[in-house]
Amino acid sequence: MERAILEYKGARYELPVIDGTEQERAIDISNLRKDSGLITLDVGYQNTGSCTSAITFIDGDRGILRYRGIPIEVLAERSTFTETAFLLIYGHLPVEAERRAFSERLTENSMIHEDMLRFFDGFPPTAHPMAILSTMVNALSVYYPGYFTEDFESGTFDLMAVRLISKIRTIAAYSFKHSIGEPFVYPRHDLRYCANFLSMMFHSPVKPYEIDPDIEKALNALLILHADHEQNCSTSTVRLVGSSMVNLYASICAGICALWGPLHGGANQHVIEMLEGIQQQGLSVRDCVARAKDKDNRFRLFGFGHRIYKNYDPRAIILKGMCDTLLKKFNISEPLIDIAMELESAALADDFFIERKLYPNVDFYSGILYRMIGIPTNMFTVMFAIGRLPGWIAQWKEMHDSVPLKIGRPRQLYTGPPLSDYVPMDQR
Ligand code: ACO
After folding, report:
1. Residue 228: what are its φ and ψ, rounded to 5°?
2. Which of 134, 308, 399, 425 would you label with 249, given CA atoms 20 to 30 Å apart?
3. Residue 284 has what pLDDT?
């Protein structure tokens, strides 16, 4: 095994270098503090691996994203969201019997306990759907208790996983129906995952909803593209919270809250609001780019930049193509897409963005697609959460499968006052 050498105050420390399957290398510093008294400091974890993982591979410089080795482009074209969920969680594509059993279990678990419907009465119609989603997902632990620590081997985990994947879309659709004051539409056993969601969202007793195969296909691909993205903010949150051995629902609820922020999954809502702002307030694309570059202005170009991708986000490329397909098929004129493309060209030609390698990310075009599907803007991040759920579950499982399970507990460098006397403020 290769070793890296750290020299400090005349002492020499040998640190093992670990190889990943894609020629990635990591210096293992697990014993550094024990051996040298030193810790490493890496604010924002820009350069710190928190785990080893066999789920998702990203090469941000080359714009590569693969789940369990399979390129995202292939999955978006050929797989279904539920098959991809199985792949992420169990590590292989399902054989026919597994696929059927997984699908049947999703159908069986698609309703939510009738008593949980009363929760909706307490939410104001204006409630943000992410607040409703996180609350309801945590509340699943009340109605469907199950703690893997008691019986991880007996299938409790598998049941919790299908419950979550199936019920999350029911909760999401019900929060929309509640916000517009329409009756809930129950899930149907005869519809596939995405079609079922569209029916629960848009069907109404007075206006039947016809499922368009291209809309269903686009939704399927959108969810696949969001299904995992290794150790991002929300996934790391799921792992960290889960490492305390709390149940899966509570860990996922924490992930949903982390995703909500505008620097993470909440960016998709902000992208559309930004594009609408340009359209409605008569802002020019140039003004917008100038504001994003201004250090005294906290405004950022939402949907641009990524901690990992220093190239075009491969998901954004696929989504942009899908936007074109739907625009052509439905012959829609969507001014926001023209503004988005103008903004993209302006940013990609600007030295500020070139030097910092800031390219469109997944959130830049996903909002436009969700709009075409009919999803309201404040639900975009909920759609992201539905898509990301299998990844969170897979990462949670991988962490719990690893032995020994270590509680997540970063260190810090204390910079506060030294030992001080207790002197009340007014006696100083
Ligand atoms: N607009 C303007 N400037 C930006 C942007 C942006 N969208 N993104 C980064 N920058 C600039 C920063 O000001 C900084 O400039 P400096 O070096 O002069 O200080 C430099 O680029 C590096 O930015 P950081 O914030 O240090 O990069 P980091 O890797 O920490 O952040 C992040 C990544 C949060 C995604 C950032 O690019 C951002 O805020 N983007 C906008 C929000 C967004 O689209 N989020 C969704 C990301 S994808 C996802 O989570 C699903």
Report:
1. -160, 155
2. 308
3. 86
Sheet holding 3-8, edge to edge: 3-8, 11-19, 25-27
User: At which residue do the structure tokens 């350069």 appear?
Assistant: 47
Closest Cα partner for 169 from 82, 254, 239? 82
Domain spans of the chain?
A: 3-49
- CA 347 to ligand 1 center in whole angstroms: 13
CA dist 257 and 271 (Å) reads 19
Atom of ligand 1 nearest to the CA of 364: 44
Nearest protein CA to atom 37 of ligand 1, as residue: 305
Mean pLDDT, each 10-residue run in order, the chain (428 residues) = 95 96 95 96 95 96 96 97 98 98 97 96 94 96 74 78 97 96 96 98 94 95 97 98 94 98 92 89 87 89 91 91 88 84 91 94 90 94 98 96 91 97 90
Q: Name the packing angle between helices 96-108 and 81-90 (round to 10°).
A: 110
- Give pLDDT, residue 147: 63
Out of 2.60.120.10, 2.20.28.60, 3.40.50.1110, 2.40.30.10, the CATH code matching 3-49 is: 2.20.28.60
Question: How far does the centroid of ligand 1 lie from the alpha carbon of residue 289, in Å?
Answer: 14
pLDDT score recorded for residue 415:
98
In this structure, are residues 363 and 319 in contact, taking their beta carbons and an 8 Å threshold? Answer: no
